[in-house]
Amino acid sequence: MSSSSYPKDKKNPKFGHLPLSTSGPEECALTGSALLRSPYHNKGSAFPSNERKDFKLYGLLPPNVQTLEAQVERAYRQYCSRTDALAKNTFMTSMKEQNEVLYYKLIQEHLKEMFGIIYTPTEGDAIQNFSKVFRRPEGCFLNIFDQDRIEDNLAQWGDPEDIDYIVVTDGEENHQLLNDDLYLGLRRPRVRGKEYDEFVDKFVQSVRKLYPGAYLHFEDFGLTNARRILDKYRPEVACFNDDVQGTGVITLAAIMAGLHVSGLKLTDMRLVVFGSGTAGIGIADQVRDAIAAESGKSKEDAAKQIWCVDKPGLLLKSQGEDLTIGQGPFARDDKEWQGKDHNDLFTVIKEVKPHVLIGTSTKPKAFTEEVVREMSKHVERPIIFPLSNPTRLHEADPKDINEWSEGKALIATGSPFPPVEYNGKKYEVGPELIISAAECNNSTAFPGIGLGAVLCRSRLLSDKMLVAAVKAIAAQSPALKDPDKGLVPDVIDVREISVHVAKAVIKQAIEEDLATEKEIPENDEDLEEWIREQMWEPRYRPYVRVDKEKASKHGKGELGVGSVRKEAKGPKPE
After folding, report:
1. pLDDT value at 381 more than 80
2. pLDDT by residue (tens digit) across 147-190?
3. CB 3.0-4.6 Å disulfide test: which of 17, 295, 360, 427 passes with 267?
4. pLDDT winner (highest mean) among 97-111, 223-237, 399-413, 417-431
5. SS3 helix, strand, coil % of the chain, rounded to 5?
6. Residue 268: which of 243, 281, 287, 282 has the closest Cα?
7. CB 395 within 8 A of CB 422
8. How many angstroms separate the CA atoms of 250 and 262, rounded?
9. What is the dihedral of CA 307, 391, 485, 76, to 10 degrees?
10. Given this model, what pLDDT does residue 562 score?
11. How far is residue 357's CA from residue 317's CA, in Å, rounded to a whole number?
12. Residue 395 and residue 413: Cα distance in Å, rounded?
C-alpha cells in the first residue's frame, strides 16, 4: 500500500478495541529528555505544542513544530549526502536508534531506492563490519558459556503479551573476524555438537515458557544447523526459517506465475536445482510439498519431479553419508543414470529436459550459453532463475539468458537488474524477486507469513499454511496481467501483499484448527479490515500522559525492540 493511501486518522475503527490496534492515542509516562531518548516515542521537532507542554519538552526542542513529511525530507537530504552504501546503511541505523517512526516513514517513501541499502547487498557488508560500526546494542545477546542466564536475559524484554515475533540468529560468520582487534563476539572457535544443541534448546524452551504466543523466526543459521533445528522444533512451536522456507515460498510463487504464463501445470513440471545447500533444498522442499498437495501424490513420488545438482554433480543415493539430511529425499536412484554422464549441469539438462532451472550455487556464470540453448530446445517457455547473491556470484546475466533463449525465457533473479530489452520490448527481472542463497531477502514472503501466524496465534506453522502463502503471492503476480512483467510482486507493494498473505495463512490455520486467537472474523472483508487494523504504520499517534505507577512497560519505555541474537563461540571456521 502506498503511503498516500494510509488514513490520516482512523475514526472509530471497527476493530479499534483489539490489543494490537494501531488506532487512537497511546499512553506515555516519559517526560523531558527521557522521552526524546526513547526511539519508539520520540517525535523530535514534530511534537505538537500541547505535548511539548504536557511532557515538559519546552526548551528541549527548536520552537518550530514540523510535520513528519518535513522531517522525512530533511532526513532524505542527509541520507543522500552520504557518499557510499555502507555510510548510508550506518546513517539509517543511527536514525532508527533515535526515531523509529521517522526511520520507517523514510524507508516507506523511498523503498525502491533504499532497499539495497537496508537489505541485500549492503546489509551483508554492515554485518561483516558490525564490530567496527557498533554504537549501541540492540537486541538480546545470549552467551553459550552463560546458559543459566538465558531465561533471565529473555525475561527482561517484557511480559508474555508484550512479545509477538522473535528473530534469532547464531551469529555464524567467517573465521577472519576473529583476527579483528575490535571483534565483539567470543574470540573462540565455534561450538558444535551436544553443547550447541543444548544451547539452542534452552533458548527455545525459555521462549516457550516466557512468551508462549510468540512466533520464532530463525535467520542465517549455517548449513549444518538450519534444517535440523527447523525439523526439530516445527512440531513444538510456531517457527520459520527464512533461508529454508522463505526462499522456497517466494521461488515457488514465481514458478507458479511462470507456469501460468507458459500454460503448464505444476504437477507436470520437471525442475532442476543447481546448488543443493540450504536455499536450494528449501526450494526443492517447497516445490515437492506443493506438487504433493495438488496431485495427491506422496512426497516421495513428488520428489521424483525434481533433480538436485551440487558440486559432485547430480545427487545420487550411492553418495550415502555425504548427503545432508535435506538432500537425502532428492537423491536419485543410481540405476536411472547407469551409463549416463551426470557430473555436470549441461548433461543433466540434456537428459532431464527441465521446464524450470533454479540457481542457488554461488557459482558465477554457471548457466552458460550451451546450458540455456539446450534447455530452450525442449521447452517453449523455459523458466530460469539465477538466484545467487551478491551480483558477482549470479549464475547468469538476465540479458544473456534472454538472448540465448531468443526471448523465450521467463526470468527472475537474486539481485536487482535493469530491465532486459529484446525485440523492442523491455522485460522486468530482478527488482521483482529479491532472493539470496546466502542471506535470503525474501521480503515479499516472510512479513505476511509472520503477520498471519502472529495475529491468529497459530500453534504451529504448517506446510499447508506455507502453500497458502505461496498461492497468495502468486495471485498478485504482475505477469498474470502482462506476461512481460515480473513474476512476483514488486517489493514496494510489500504491505499490501502482506495483507493478502496473512489472510491466506490465517484462513488455513483456522481450517487446520491451529489458530488459537478468539473471534477472528469469518468473512474476507472483515478479516482484511481486522488484519489492517493491527498492522503498525509509521505515523505519529497522539500521547496521553499517565503516571509511571499506572503505566505499562511500553508506556514507560521499558520494552526492548530488536532481534534476539545468540553467539555460539565466535564465527564458523573456514
Report:
1. yes
2. 999 999 999 888 899 999 999 999 777 888 888 899 998 888 88
3. 295
4. 97-111
5. 45, 10, 45
6. 287
7. no
8. 18
9. 140
10. 40
11. 22
12. 9
The pLDDT assigned to 158 comes to 86
Q: Do the Cβ atoms of 34 and 557 come closer than 8 Å?
A: yes
Binding site membership: which residues?
219-220, 243, 389, 441
Query: Which parts are annotated binding residues for (S)-malate?
Result: 389, 441
pLDDT of residue 568 exceeding 50, the answer is no
**Cα 478 vs. chain centroid, distance in angstroms?**
21
C-alpha cell of residue 330 = 532428492
Based on the number of CB atoms within 10 Å of its own CB, is 223 exposed (0-12), middle (13-18) or buried (19 or more)? Answer: middle
| Selection from 256, 334, 335, 329 nearest residue 291 by Cα | 256
Question: What's the rounded Cα separation, in Å, for the pair 244 and 277?
Answer: 9
pLDDT at 7: 41
Which residue has cell 497511546? 26
User: Which of 5-14, 130-139, 517-526 is predicted with the least confidence, judged by mean pLDDT?
Assistant: 5-14
SS3 per residue for 97-141 = CCCHHHHHHHHHHCHHHHHHHHCCCHHHHHHHCHHHHCCCCCCEE
Model confidence pTM above 0.90: no
Give the containing element (helix H, strand E) for 531: helix 524-533
Of 248, 292, 236, 230, give the one whose Cα is nearest residue 266: 292
What does residue 426 show for φ and ψ, rounded to 5 degrees?
A: -105, 130
Smallest CA-to-CA distance from 487 within 403, 387, 570 is with 387
Starting from the edge strand earliest in sequence, which strands make up the sheet with 239-241, in order?
Answer: 140-143, 564-567, 165-169, 215-218, 239-241
Place of cell 543410481: 334
Mean pLDDT for the chain overall: 88
Task: Please enumerate, by residue number, every residue annotated as part of a binding site for a divalent metal cation.
Answer: 219-220, 243
Give the closest residue to 240 by CA, choosing from 165, 151, 173, 144: 165
